[in-house]
Give the backbone structure.
Amino acid sequence: MKGDQRIDRRFAELAAAGRKALIPFVTAGDPDPEQVVPLLHALVGAGADLIELGVPFSDPMADGPVIQRSSERALARGVNLAQVLEWVRVFREGDQETPIVLMGYLNPVECFGAARFARACASAGVDGVLLVDCPLEESAPYRSALDAVGVHQILLAAPTTRGARREALARAARGFLYYVAFAGVTGADRLDPVALAEELADWRRLLAVPLAVGFGIKTAGDAAAVAAHADAVVVGSALVETLSRADEPVAAAAAFLRPLRAALDARSDAAAGLPA
């Protein structure tokens, strides 16, 4: 199954069921390279609809201290892009349905080569790629290579995205659009659901793909508030920090995610008029 089919199918299934997607982010290789694949399966078991898998990088400019440190720990253990793709391949042996989106930066992809990287993603079972430091205006070579093998390049938008550029991003978006809830780095604490609702309403008028929101989502309450206006909720720094402190990361990941899944499902049930 091509990656674009898997992402599109998952969102179509969720929409038909009146449910919102829960997308956890973890850094590949942190806290334990030996547990990456079990950790991914545990996240699915606890209610993840898609998984965002971070490719460790030495200068993760969009990430706050929590994810920066997780990248540093993974790199210190020798984790690289080839190893991350191998983990996805092994995960696919037990799960052919859950979409995997790689999140990372351009430098490792440049070292790999765009066409070779795209082919390796498709072969491993990657469904989407989010390149944080690759703006729309510079994305053509990567989008072309990924499109050729059926993998979506996931685009980022922010509150500062306005006017013609907002419209261009909306037209170019494939799979889903990742909307950054505020201008800043991951892990910051500035989530404003009221202001966010106004922004998302405007994006929805432009988009033909689902809308995912990340940055600043830490609790089940945050997730439910955002899900009232978005198709998907991304949680990263709070989960990564929990894993960094856990004696049993796989169990801790599942325990962290379950309340968020329950909050999203309760919100969906309430919206559908179903009893609690």
